[in-house]
Write a structure and sequence with these properties.
The chain is mainly beta. Helices cover 5% and strands 58% of the residues.
């Protein structure tokens, strides 16, 4: 806490806006903004005043706002996308608590937002560069694979965010790898955000309330990953009335129930989803298929209780699992479990506190049965996390955000256990223990009506802890030393300051320029031969050999709205410098290897690009176009003779075109087209025959590319029935309409007819895939 006090004093001294004396007596207006029908709080709602143009504030993640203005008479305006603006006359002679309930203007409740610290009505007013917004209407109508509305796949249609593969929910942001994205669900880290090896995300859109996406200009309260943050909040539940909704699709069905608790002082929501491919495999006459189990499920649970006007408790959890077993128990299963207990406390009209206790766990198990040995191979990562955050609304021009967090990581890189009758010797790699902590402080400073600045710092530290046996390796991967450490003993510690800065300058009512700089540190590292996060993942913390990954990113952008804010345009450039990046020696063995750190290589990297985006927001026809031109490279001694080479996720060009058309009251039609340069891959350049076997020679790392990717999807939604108590609709879609054979992988083998020739064999997962889903709500 002493460090935090020093940070606050330092921030006060360097900020001119904090030291300004008030020439007129001021008072504070504060409160919470909610949905009138459900009681859901509205993060990002805007509070402004008719008499003070350019002055206003947005609610925090829990719908709380606070603003200090001079005494007098005002007209307070409260607004939020999809809701009627509330107007309230005030005479300000003392501090006032004003809670506001907004009425929806569309009749659609539980709206989901995808946002990046941006204004709900205008993308030119916010500080950080790298801003896009999507409404739930956009998400609901975008056609996706097998009709499952998928937030993670929808954001892949935005500039700077590209897919990890055909139909895959994994993604890369501004050249970062898949594990460099911090994905949070009610503040709990979700390590594997996908079902069915990546084809569906674990996020049931019926349970989601709000999503914030940061590609750059990261606020100081976020840390631990290099490329992006996806902060996902679950719905709190309707505290006014009971209700239910759901859907029945070709692959999975879902159901959600919510309602009030404790005489409307609280609420609950339960949302569940399950696939049912296993119901059909059981009907097969083939015994192998008949005894197969292939399914996934996820369950979201949340409740809250309003103790009094100043205190509110939240308890939420997520449980999901995938099972893919063949021949009885042979196969794999994996899943996430998270839990969050939060306490909101309002100390006074200016100081808001959120205290969170968080649990996160990811495990996977692979079962082998060769009729002699039955072996179970497993891996896991578990987090215990405490976070304390404060919002202090100092005055009209300054808002402080400060706090601390600490996470205890336990990783199990691998274990193999056999049945009692087996001849196999059990293997268990030692668990890794580490404590990751941070202090952070930032200030949102409205320097003038045109200039808005956010600046701050995050001080992060990772402490590597015993017990364990720790090895030291030379540059060639040879073991040079080993040391035993007892439980709780410090093996190594890393301390890294992370400065953050973002600014926007409004040129006129329709245009602004923005710039940002941020440093991010990552201490949890994914080891995988796959370019995306697959089921069999191995996480390791920084150690005596693995240093923290560091990224410094700067971005500059121009933003413009036109035709009465009906269109948005942005163009942005960025450059990212990367330190301590990890790659693998040729022939590296990652699974079940006690000395896996000997197979790791370390170096630098860089990513840079240009993003452009235009969106039509109003009218019967809406949609957007995004284009990204980028480059992502690594430079690691021991690979490619020490020269730069393309990273696996490098995609030079990425184009997305999305359109939606409202045809009357019943029908909505949509389509999206995607094109991108193929990922960088390493293919053999020559082959030799050695003792009758073919041996391939590989050239430069990632010196080849998969063919370019392109796909067109179409969709239609029919509103079948809508009354005051019941609503039903049908979703129809076709994924990859013209059946493009986009390669997921290409392998090389000898031609069976002529061993002197080589065949390139392409694997394609999805050609034309139709789907239909029935949705209901009552």
């Amino acid at each position: 806490m002493q460090k935090l006090k020093h940070l606050i004093l330092f921030l006060i001294m360097i900020s001119p806006g904090l030291a300004l004396a008030q020439s007129k007596k001021t008072f504070t207006i504060s409160g919470t903004i909610k949905d009138n029908a459900s009681g859901e709080t509205l993060p990002g709602a805007t509070v402004s005043f008719l008499e003070l143009p350019g002055k206003g504030v947005t609610t925090n993640a829990y719908g709380f706002y606070s603003i200090a203005i001079a005494e007098g008479e005002y007209t307070m305006l409260t607004s939020y996308t999809g809701y009627f603006t509330d107007t309230l006359k005030l005479r300000l002679t003392k501090n006032i608590l004003t809670n506001v309930s907004l009425k929806t203007s569309s009749g659609q409740l539980g709206e989901v937002k995808i946002r990046s610290t941006s204004s709900r009505s205008n993308n030119i007013l916010t500080s950080p560069a790298g801003v896009q917004m999507l409404s739930i209407k956009d998400i609901a109508n975008v056609p996706v694979l097998l009709g499952e509305k998928d937030i993670l796949k929808t954001i892949q249609l935005l500039p700077g965010i590209v897919s990890a593969g055909d139909g895959n929910s994994g993604f890369f942001v501004r050249g970062g790898s898949a594990d460099q994205n911090l994905i949070l669900l009610d503040e709990a880290t979700v390590y594997n955000p996908s079902h069915v090896l990546g084809f569906f995300s674990v996020f049931n859109s019926d349970a989601i309330k709000d999503i914030s996406i940061y590609k750059g200009g990261m606020p100081a309260n976020y840390g631990g990953r290099l490329s992006s943050v996806e902060d996902i909040r679950m719905n709190d539940g309707n505290n006014q009335k009971f209700g239910a909704s759901g859907g029945i699709g070709l692959i999975a069905s879902r159901f959600t129930a919510q309602g009030p608790l404790w005489d409307h002082r609280g609420s609950f929501i339960v949302s569940a989803r399950r696939s049912y491919a296993d119901l059909f495999t059981g009907m097969s006459s083939d015994t192998t298929i008949k005894h197969s189990k292939i399914y996934f499920y996820d369950v979201n649970l949340k409740s809250n209780y309003q103790i009094d006007d100043n205190n509110r408790l939240f308890l939420s959890g997520y449980f999901g699992k995938d099972v893919m077993n063949f021949k009885h128990d042979e196969g794999l299963d994996y899943g996430n479990a998270t839990g969050t207990l939060r306490w909101n406390h309002i100390f006074n009209a200016k100081l808001f506190s959120n205290t969170s206790l968080i649990y996160s766990n990811y495990t996977y198990n692979v079962n082998f049965d060769d009729n002699t040995d039955v072996i179970k191979v497993s891996s896991a990562i578990t987090d215990y996390h405490l976070k304390q955050n404060f919002n202090y609304y100092l005055n009209t021009a300054n808002k402080l955000n400060f706090g601390f967090e600490s996470t205890y990581h336990i990783t199990q890189p691998g274990a193999a256990v056999s049945a009692a009758s087996s001849n196999f010797n059990n293997i268990s790699l030692q668990k890794k223990h580490s404590l990751e902590s941070a202090l952070y402080l930032s200030n949102e400073w409205n320097a003038s009506d045109q200039l808005k600045i956010t600046y701050g710092v995050r001080l992060s530290e990772l402490v590597v802890l015993g017990p364990g046996h720790f090895y030291t390796y030379d540059k060639d991967g040879n073991k040079t030393d080993s040391t035993d450490y007892a439980r709780g003993k410090i093996v190594k510690s890393y301390f890294t300051p992370e400065p953050r800065f973002a600014a926007s300058y409004q040129l006129n009512n329709n245009s602004s320029v923005k710039l940002s700089y941020d440093r991010n540190v990552q201490n949890i590292h994914l080891l995988s031969n796959s370019p995306f996060i697959s089921a069999t993942i191995i996480y390791l913390p920084s150690s005596n050999n693995i240093k923290p990954e560091i990224a410094d990113q700067a971005s500059l952008g121009y933003y413009h709205t036109f035709r009465e804010n009906g269109y948005e345009f942005s163009s942005e450039i960025y450059y990212k410098n990367l330190q301590n990046q990890i790659d693998y020696r040729n022939g590296a063995n990652l699974a079940g290897n006690e000395y896996v750190e000997a197979d790791l290589l370390y170096g630098s990297g860089r990513a840079y690009g240009w993003e452009t985006y235009i969106k039509k927001k109003s009218g019967k026809f809406t949609g957007w176009l995004s284009y990204t031109l980028s480059r992502t490279e690594r430079k690691i001694p021991g690979i490619n003779n020490g020269h730069y080479y393309p990273a696996t996720q490098d995609q030079t060009n990425h184009l997305s075109l999305v359109g939606m058309y409202q045809a009357g009251k019943k029908w909505t039609f949509s389509a999206n087209f995607v094109y991108n340069t193929g990922n960088a891959v390493t293919w053999p350049s020559e082959k030799f025959a050695v003792d009758g076997a073919t041996v391939y020679y590989y050239g430069g790392r990632n010196s080849s590319r998969l063919p370019a990717y392109n796909r067109l999807d179409i969709g239609a939604t029919l509103l079948a029935k809508k009354t005051a108590k019941y609503e039903s609709s049908w979703d129809f879609s076709i994924y990859n309409v013209y059946g493009q054979s986009n390669p997921s992988d290409i392998i090389f083998r000898n031609d069976p007819k002529n061993a002197n020739k080589t065949q390139a064999v392409q694997t394609t997962f999805f050609k034309m895939v139709p789907s239909v889903t029935y949705n209901f709500k009552f």
